[in-house]
Amino acid sequence: MPASTAHAAQLCLDALSTADPSCHSPLYTVMTMANTLELSRQAWVIRGQTRSRRPGSWPTWFARNTSEKPMLYLHSAASSAQLCALSEATALRGILCNDIENHPSPWPKGAQPSLPLWLTTHPRCTPYDPSCGEEARAIVLGGLRNLYVEGQPGFYYLALHDHERAMPLDERDREAALQGMYPIQRRPIADVRLLGAGQALEEVIQAAQLLEQDWGVTSQVWSCPSYTRLAREAAVAERWNRLHPTATKRSCHLRECLEGSEAPVIAVTGYPQPIVDQLAGYVDARFVALGAAPSRYWVVVSALRALVEEARLDWRQVEIAMNRYALECD
């Protein structure tokens, strides 16, 4: 990484260090950060609409770019083809922020199913789905530091929604969010562990309240801004352990967060279920993946069923819950 690029990135981090810590949505937070970066003149901030396969709104000054600066690209891409074209045009570098889930669409989170699958399988992409403004801020700052100060390859992707949630993070939480997950409600002992990402985290939090209020079931709640990063790190650690059977085993952030308990894990995403299925092989407990943003009631029923399968509850509890919440199975 050229010294001039690292220096520009550090100036960007300095400019963002005095940002307003108030509660905002991920979209508002990133837009505010973009304005600050524009004023600093140390980053390329590009605002483009990518509904076609060709990236648009490229400023003339960017076309004359002769040295790399940190790049923040704000766009609306609904398909993997659009996102692929955009990533190639940016030379697989930068922080790409997609606000497509704020637009009317028949697809979960506004994106065609191919888009999240493309994100998880692209080796140069680190995708995130922040649930609040503080998470989004931590991820953008981490991206500037990791990509441009430390010179790591690839690009970051953020899915941005415009719903505010007050969730202050301390320094430890911010770093853990960048790694993929951190605790919101972490009891020493709990009956189930609930994981959520993006807007789906709100349903997970509400489900935890219903579980305790209606069924006497206690929960740990975790925010997971990046299921993909968790799964990739776990896969790397597992492969290393397999190839070095006599060496000390390597751990990963996912296992470190979930160690010390055998309680079932219910993981929820607003994207299709395969995004969460990535974790299944690395969770040492009963694991349930829920996709396409299930309601809090389905999260509750899934948690109760997991406890039934662990012989902790009777099947009648699940039937009662299905009737109480007026849920129907096709």
TrEMBL record:
Pfam families: Transketolase_C_1. This is Pyruvate dehydrogenase. InterPro entries: PDH/Transketolase (IPR051157), Transketo_C/PFOR_II (IPR009014), Transketolase-like_C_2 (IPR055152). Coiled coil: none annotated. Keywords: Pyruvate. Residues 180-281 form the Transketolase-like C-terminal domain. The keyword Amino-acid biosynthesis does not apply. It comes from Pseudomonas cremoris.
